[in-house]
Design goal:
The complex is a heterodimer of chains A (320) and B (299).
Chain A lengths: L22 H8 L3 H28 L3 H6 L12 H6 L5 H6 L9 H32 L5 H11 L8 H10 L6 H9 L3 H13 L2 H9 L4 H12 L1 H17 L2 H6 L8 H11 L7 H27 L9
Chain B lengths: L8 H36 L16 H7 L2 H34 L4 H8 L6 H11 L6 H8 L14 H25 L4 H9 L4 H29 L3 H6 L11 H11 L3 H27 L7
Classes of the chains: A mainly alpha (320), B mainly alpha (299).
Chain lengths: 320, 299
């Protein structure tokens, strides 16, 4: 399921991302009313439901399959082992893997990890750069047909992501790019209407004086864009980049259509293949959970690095 | 040198050339990978295209077939059930989380935590919950059994499967939706709550009298976005139940995928895609019309 991402520009000046509540709110916090106790209980429940599955992945990945069957509810890893990770990364021989309850189908997770990283990087870098350039042309340059072309982009927002997948597959096939990383990246590599729309909103709000001062200094418009406006847009560009990276990293439907072999297989598809290799009766849960952890960890780390800057800027951009 | 606003014609022409340069890559991508495929998708729905031989025009055949296809109607019904459960639970939960983050605590750490499931793919979320809800070994069923109840085959039972998949996707997306709503709540001035508090209003009353009316436009847009996303469910179904048991989770997008890549009926699959497009456009239009009333100055 591809969700339309929506991010807002920098939050209004009056509220910074880490703004603590006003003093009054904090004073209330010390006075524990029954209502607040209930509210905190609900909040704690939400956090537990959010976080516990992550712990359970880790606990399962570090257990042996026989241990899991013997102690399904033990809170700690059963017979701690790295076997699950070894199977997920294809470090075990088939016999060894089958002996430990694996499917024995060789998986090249390093390869898939690299493929995912390549595709996501290619999509993110190109999509953000080209979208920013177009957004600047729509927001700041005067040219004939500008509003017509922009209206076309806005209409593009109305097309559900999933609608273009089948015809795009036919196109990629005609281009001879099926089963290639480029084939996976191409459709979203140049732009998404949302990225263009969102960055245009930001450039519209940059005071003209900033640009004019630079132009008066004799800089050309190209230079002004790359040296002045793009750096000013670093906050929304960063948020958009991280969200784009996460979205392309997590995409499954499109790569599933386009990739057939290891050479272009990305992590999401590999994980689904790994899951399908396992009969429901004797699933290699330990190996499977190790694989999900390997697939999810890079995004958790990426988010960990940028969390503070991103959480404050994810928001809502009204289409007015 | 005059100010730019009454720029000389030369500057305009320069802009034109520069604009072409700046717009070209995005416009190329737009035309080749969005506009053309959209038109082609509609065209293919009127053909018997099967990927192997050139497309032949068959008029409305695919649409006639669709109307008479019980599996199509059933998959539409399954999808609607999924959307109702998914959107119902997700909207209420996201609203609750957003309000708690606004009124109870301003912790950005908590905001980061609720977003973590969003960082993993639907595939990962599906596989993880498949394990947690496994009938024999899953911790979820251990808890059910611990409560003295019979184990529930959550994803292998016709009644349970669709709501469970809907809830798995709520788990993955609710934090993101909550943050979108939270951003909308940030626009409501705190003075309004302070003033209401002075008048002795309870938090419950403030929620209904201040928060809901002022958040309505934001909520409407977020709702349109999430409903459209929800209708396109595919990944989670593909990795958990593969449409089973007995087509109980055969959502529309999964059926379309099967028609195209399982049976190479690209023309028929395209017709069903067009049907979905029409449904989504109608929903967007209706929601937009319904929510234009009651726009506020905030948000």
């Amino acid at each position: 399921m591809t969700e339309t991402t929506s991010v807002a520009g920098p939050p209004p000046v009056t509220r910074t991302a880490t703004a603590a509540g006003p003093a009054t709110a904090r004073r209330d916090g010390r006075r524990l009313s029954p209502g607040r106790i209930v509210a905190w209980t609900v909040m704690a429940a939400i956090v537990l439901i959010t976080v516990l599955p992550f712990y359970w992945i880790l606990r399962t990945a570090l257990s042996t399959n026989t241990g899991l069957a013997a102690h399904p509810a033990g809170p700690l890893p059963v017979d701690p082992t790295a076997g699950g990770f070894e199977r997920a990364l294809g470090l075990q021989s088939a016999e060894e893997a089958i002996a430990q309850g694996g499917a024995g189908g060789g998986l090249k997770f390093w390869r898939y990890l690299l493929n995912s990283a390549l595709v996501s990087t290619l999509i993110t870098v190109c999509q953000i750069l080209f979208s920013a350039m177009a957004a600047y042309a729509f927001a700041r340059l005067r040219w004939r047909g500008r509003d017509t072309v922009f209206a076309l982009f806005l209409a593009g927002l109305m097309v559900p992501a999933v609608f273009t997948l089948l015809p795009n597959f036919v196109l990629i096939k005609e281009l001879g790019l099926v089963d290639s990383l480029l084939g996976i990246a191409l459709p979203t590599m140049f732009m998404t209407p949302f990225a263009v729309f969102f960055l245009r909103q930001f450039f519209m709000n940059v005071p003209r004086e900033v640009e004019e001062a630079a132009l008066l200094d004799g800089a050309g418009k190209v230079r002004v864009f790359f040296r002045v406006l793009l750096p000013m847009a670093s906050a929304p560009v960063l948020t958009l980049s991280v969200l784009t990276y996460i979205t392309s990293w997590n995409d499954y439907f499109w790569p599933l259509m386009v990739s057939y072999s290891d050479s272009s297989r990305v992590l999401t598809v590999a994980l689904a293949v790994f899951r399908a290799q396992n009969p429901q009766s004797g699933t290699d849960w330990s190996g499977l959970m190790a694989a999900t952890l390997i697939a999810a960890l890079p995004m958790l780390l990426l988010f960990g690095v940028f969390a503070r800057r991103i959480v404050g800027t994810i928001g809502f951009t009204g289409i007015k | 040198m005059t100010v730019v606003s009454n720029s000389p014609p030369s500057r305009l022409r320069g802009d034109g050339r520069l604009a072409v340069l700046f717009v070209a890559p995005a416009l190329l991508g737009f035309v080749v990978f969005l506009l053309w495929p959209t038109l082609r998708g509609v065209y293919l729905s009127f053909t018997s295209f099967n990927l192997l031989t050139p497309a032949e025009w068959v008029g409305l055949d695919n649409y006639v077939r669709m109307v008479h296809d019980p599996i199509f109607w059933d998959s539409l019904r399954v999808t609607v059930v999924y959307v109702v459960v998914n959107i119902g639970v997700q909207t209420v939960s996201a609203l609750a989380i957003a309000v708690l983050l606004q009124r109870l605590t301003q912790s950005s750490v908590l905001r980061g935590i609720v977003l973590t499931p969003y960082l993993m793919s639907n595939v990962v979320a599906g596989v993880v919950w498949l394990w947690i809800l496994d009938t024999q070994l899953g911790i979820g069923n251990e808890i059910v059994a611990g409560l003295g109840l019979d184990r529930i085959p959550f994803l292998a039972d016709e009644t349970w499967a669709v709501p469970v998949i809907a809830l798995i996707n709520v788990w993955r997306h609710v934090g993101y939706t909550a943050l979108l709503l939270f951003a909308g709540l940030q626009a409501i001035p705190n003075d309004m709550y302070e003033a209401a508090k002075v008048d002795g209003a309870s938090e419950w009353r403030m929620f209904w009298r201040i928060t809901m009316p002022l958040l309505r436009p934001v909520l409407a847009v977020v709702l349109i976005m999430t409903v459209i996303g929800s209708f396109q469910v595919f990944d989670t179904v593909a990795v958990t139940t593969a449409g089973g048991p007995a087509n109980a989770t055969n959502v529309l997008q999964y059926y379309i995928y099967g028609a195209a890549f399982g049976r190479f009926q690209f023309g028929y699959a395209s017709a069903m895609s067009v049907a979905l497009l029409v449904v989504l456009s109608a929903i967007t239009f209706v929601q937009y019309r319904l929510t234009r009333a009651g726009q506020t100055d905030l948000g």
